[in-house]
Amino acid sequence: MTNNFIVTLKKNTPDVETKKFVDSVHRAGGSILHEFDIIKGYTIKLPDALHLNKLKEKHNDVIENVEEDKEVHTN
Fold first, then answer.
1. Cα–Cα–Cα angle for 3, 6, 10, nearest 5°?
2. Which residue segment(s) compose the domain that 40 sits in?
3. Per-residue pLDDT tens for 16-43?
4. CA-to-CA distance for 26 and 46, rounded, in angstroms?
5. Is position 31 within any domain?
6. How many distinct structural domains can be found in the chain?
7. Is residue 18 part of a domain?
8. Do you know which InterPro entries this protein is assigned to (predicted)?
9. Are 66 and 41 in contact (CB under 8 A)?
10. How high is the pLDDT of residue 2?
């Protein structure tokens, strides 16, 4: 089962580190679904949560926040 996540990188993340993060997503069998313009962040698709944990460990110094991309409803 694949999961989608929104990953926000720290504002001061150098481009070289951003590229390393994107490359890691692809090496983990994932893909970039969307790149945000206003913030340094991505919507990514990963095969499973285990791959997310590995990404978070490897890029902990540049990742600001990770949350599951899910539909939100208002009442």
1. 140
2. 13-63
3. 999 999 999 999 999 999 999 999 999 9
4. 9
5. yes
6. 1
7. yes
8. PBI_I9 (IPR052471), S8pro/Inhibitor_I9_sf (IPR037045)
9. no
10. 67
| Domain presence at residue 38 | yes
11: pLDDT strictly greater than 90: yes
Spell out the long-range contacts of 48-54 with Cβ–Cβ below 8 A and sequence spacing 24 or more.
48/1, 48/2, 48/3, 49/3, 52/3, 52/5, 54/28
Q: What are the DSSP calls for 3-71, one per residue?
A: EEEEEEE-TT--HHHHHHHHHHHHHTT-EEEEE-SSSSEEEEEES-HHHHHHHHHHTTTTEEEEEE---
Angle at 5 between CA 49 and CA 74, to 5 degrees: 120
70 is written with which tokens? 């899910």
Q: Does residue 1 fall inside a structural domain?
A: no
pTM, two decimals, is 0.88
